[in-house]
Amino acid sequence: MTLEGDLRLVAARWSSRARWTVLTGAGVSAASGIGTFRGSDGLWKNFRAEDLATPEAFARDPHRVWEWYDWRRQKIAAARPNRAHEVLASWSRRQAAFRLITQNVDGLHERAGTEHVTRFHGSIWDIRCSKRCGGSGSSWVDTRAPLPELPVRCPDCGGLARPGVVWFEEPIDPEVLRQAQEALDCDVCLVVGTSSVVYPAAALALEARQRGAWTVEINPEPGAADVDLAIVGKAEEVLPEIDSILH
């Protein structure tokens, strides 16, 4: 099967009644200049993301962890949604039974206008009290980049605040898991821009397939996902091509 043939297979699954769920990872934001944080672009001052995005790293050196997140926030604030974000946003508005589950914390899907988004790993723009003090302002959104003071403090108790993201070794929020599980009851499941190696997100496509969904992976390199169709390519190139067939 040729690439064009594969794209037409995906487009043929589109209908007004079809339930589409899209799972996205860092590769969707790569064309916007947001690093995938794996390999060479995953280094910051010789630290890997896996060495900084953990509760242990925050407990050991909260200032360093906040420096890294402030650097990331500045890069994301300067970025713009790319064609992959724009196509998915368009689909979300055209298809009533469309759901998007993203591992990305950058908020570019929402900035592109995507509807029905589940943030599997939270948002880099959310901040919360690390002690969970329970005050009225202990969880908030702050889009300033750079932040005026590091490390960030809780306005209620004065204790350390942390990014509102899911770190390695932390569980997914139960409500987010419920939304994701509900979205897996679909007809088509696209896995876009993710290597499918970080669990539990990596298991979502497999579960959708086990429930009867037709699953497709779109990624520059084939990942670990067990799917019905694997398309090798960049999200910002493949998705617009599928969209052009739909039109």
Keywords:
alpha/beta, Rossmann fold, 2 domains, 6-stranded parallel beta sheet, 11 strands
Give a short synopsis of this structure.
The chain is α/β, with parallel strands linked by helices and 247 residues long. Helix content is 33%, strand content 19%.
Q: What is the element layout, followed by pairings?
A:
Layout: H1 3-12, E1 20-24, E2 43-44, E3 47-48, H2 49-52, H3 55-60, H4 62-77, H5 83-94, E4 98-102, H6 108-111, E5 117-119, E6 122-129, E7 139-141, E8 161-165, H7 174-183, E9 188-192, H8 204-210, E10 214-219, E11 229-232, H9 235-246
Helix pairs in contact: 1-9, 5-9
Number of strands: 11
Question: In CATH, what is the class of the largest domain?
Answer: Alpha Beta
CATH superfamily of the largest domain: TPP-binding domain
Number of helices: 9
**Distance N to C terminus:** 22 Å
- The tally of structural domains comes to 2
- Approximate strand percentage: 15-25%
Helix/strand-derived category reads alpha/beta
How large is the radius of gyration?
19 Å
Characterize the structure shown.
This protein has two domains: about 150 residues, TPP-binding domain (Rossmann fold), CATH 3.40.50.1220; about 90 residues, SIR2/SIRT2 'Small Domain'. It is about 35% helix and about 20% strand. The longest helix has 16 residues. The chain is elongated and about 55 Å long. The two termini are about 20 Å apart.
